[in-house]
Amino acid sequence: TFLGVQLFAWIALWRAGLTPGSGAFASLLYGLTWLHALHTAVGVVGLAVQAARARAPGGWGAYWHLVSFAWLAIASGLFLS
Length: 81
What we know:
Blueprint: H1 2-15, H2 24-52, H3 60-79
């Protein structure tokens, strides 16, 4: 759902004239949202694999901890600076 909504938003922004080459804000916006979409896609695939192999221990717990720390770092950098 997130990826579909994000694609819809990117298309709307692009049609409104906000392209990645439109300046620093647009570049940062597209860069962070593409990174977030990629992270979401990797997480969804990882959760699907983990659900299929529920008995096998894996490293996806560590992945989600890394994601949590990365989110805290990004949010702190964006909102507390």
